[in-house]
Amino acid sequence: MAKVLNDNAGKTLTTILDGDSINKLFFEARKEFINKKISTNLAWNAYVTADVFNTLVDSVYTVQGKGSAINISFFGF
Predict the structure, then answer these.
(1) What whole-number distance in Å separates Cα of residue 44 and Cα of residue 25?
(2) Packed helices 19-35 and 50-58: angle between N→C axes, nearest 10 degrees
(3) Which of 10, 43, 55, 75 could make an SS bond with 6 (beta carbons 3.0 to 4.6 A apart)?
(4) C-alpha distances in Å from residue 40, one per residue of 16, 23, 30, 37, 75
(5) For residues 26 and 2, what is the distance between their CA atoms, to the nearest angstrom?
């Protein structure tokens, strides 16, 4: 089972640590999910390092004016 999962889902995406680059990386990951026909009924989660999390929190994409919110209890945006 692990081999099947790895063969179908095993891709490592990397980028530099800034808001724009991380945002583009998430768009690339989304394309991977769509192209591999991953079910939209499943939650698409990303497990990130503390550095990536902090960069996302501090980025221009998580601003109150857009209605963005950060829930530290669930580590979600």
Answers:
(1) 14
(2) 110
(3) 10
(4) 28, 20, 11, 8, 21
(5) 24
Ramachandran bin of 71, using left for φ above 0, alpha for ψ from -120 to 50, beta for the remaining angles? beta
Q: Dump pLDDT digits (tens) for 11-59.
A: 778 889 998 998 898 888 888 878 877 777 777 777 788 898 888 888 7
**How far from 2 is each of 7, 9, 30, CA to CA, in Å?**
8, 10, 22
Q: What token pair was written down for 21?
A: 């680059």
Backbone angles phi, psi at 76, to 5 degrees: -125, 160
